[in-house]
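Lab notebook, design round three. We kept the backbone fixed and only want residue identities now. Task for the bench partner: fill in a sequence for the structure below.
Input structure tokens:
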């Protein structure tokens, strides 16, 4: 009997060791990137936003806002029964524009779905948080794009003057996309620590600019990219908050634009508005909200208030329309931000994926294209 138990113990130990080894090998795949080390880590240690080995938000920001454990929260999201319509039943209407054929002298933005944007400003071509993969997760099938939204690939992009990445989550920093773009990108602008991923993925580090909150990078054409605070978190594995999350204020002699990245609501929006505004147009995190993580994504009313804080003329909701990360109906953010924007001084712009929006003085008209879809 003792021999039988001994063999059972050895068998279980072997299985456990094999599983651990398999996980460690899996986590060494390039998709997971690389943590900061060496000189990069030494620079991070001097940041006023870094303490005790991690980056911190400007105000207290617990990730969980309910008693449910984080593990249980993610398991419920992945395997729990789906309520309502977190995904549309059919294809999303979209318009594929030939980006290479656009006049580079025109200031414009093209929403590419979720939090991805192609921008032309002051004669520069800028790409923000591009995710061209159908799956925004390291595990196939874990976060699949809505039908009809995967219009673009790296091959569709013109040469890019600046690639901006707000943080290293998979729905913002997509390994297949940024590696495919490597030869088209003249400069990369990211928060502190995010450059470690680009180093592992073969980017020339002379191209990569890592910045702290309220630091700036100047592009040719008198265009300045200000790296701004956000209220969120980072991490591609279990090692969280080793790199900085951020938004971007793009300031040219003619226009001021703002991209929030992922962010919960906070006083940083009013501060950004005072420092870099008023803005001609902004894109804000307006989807994937949930009471369980209320601090790190905005709901519709908070996004409307943030738009007001930023003193913007026009506002486009983002972090929606391509992936379902929260259990709310896929079209809920569109309907609720349309209602919440009533009576505000800004104009709500809701273009189709792929539709160019020119920053000129002409009147803009957008349809409620999500209506009638389930």
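Proposed sequence:
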């Amino acid at each position: 009997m003792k021999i039988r138990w001994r063999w059972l113990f050895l068998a279980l130990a072997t299985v456990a060791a094999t599983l651990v080894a398999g996980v460690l090998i899996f986590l060494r795949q390039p998709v997971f990137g690389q943590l900061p080390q060496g000189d990069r880590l030494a620079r991070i240690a001097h940041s006023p936003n870094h303490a005790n080995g991690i980056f911190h938000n400007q105000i207290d920001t617990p990730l969980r806002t309910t008693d449910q454990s984080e593990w249980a929260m993610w398991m419920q999201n992945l395997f729990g029964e789906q309520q309502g319509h977190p995904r549309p039943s059919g294809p999303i209407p979209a318009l594929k524009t030939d980006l290479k054929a656009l006049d580079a002298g025109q200031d414009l933005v093209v929403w590419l779905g979720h939090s991805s944007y192609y921008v032309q400003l002051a004669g520069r071509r800028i790409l923000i948080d591009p995710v061209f993969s159908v799956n925004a997760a390291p595990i196939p099938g874990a976060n699949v794009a809505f039908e009809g939204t995967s219009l673009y690939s790296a091959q569709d992009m013109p040469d890019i003057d600046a690639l901006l990445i707000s943080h290293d989550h998979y729905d913002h920093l997509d390994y297949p996309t940024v590696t495919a773009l490597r030869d088209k990108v003249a400069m990369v602008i990211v928060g502190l620590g995010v450059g470690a991923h680009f180093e592992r993925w073969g980017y020339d580090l002379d191209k990569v600019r890592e910045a702290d909150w309220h630091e700036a990078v100047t592009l040719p054409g008198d265009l300045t990219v200000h790296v701004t605070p956000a209220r969120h978190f980072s991490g591609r594995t279990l090692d969280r908050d080793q790199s900085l999350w951020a938004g971007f204020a793009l300031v040219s002699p003619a226009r001021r634009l703002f991209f929030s990245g992922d962010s919960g609501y906070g006083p940083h929006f009013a501060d950004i508005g005072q420092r870099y505004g008023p803005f001609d147009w902004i894109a804000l995190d307006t989807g994937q909200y949930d009471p369980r993580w209320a601090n790190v994504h905005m709901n519709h009313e908070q996004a409307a208030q943030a738009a007001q804080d930023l003193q913007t003329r026009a506002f486009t909701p983002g972090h929606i329309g391509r992936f379902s990360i929260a259990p709310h109906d896929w079209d809920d953010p569109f309907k609720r931000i349309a209602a919440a924007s009533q009576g505000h001084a800004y104009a709500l712009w809701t273009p189709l994926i792929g539709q160019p929006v020119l920053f000129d003085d002409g009147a803009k008209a957008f349809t409620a294209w999500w209506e009638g879809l389930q």
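Keep this in mind before ordering anything: The two ends are 61 Å apart (CA to CA).
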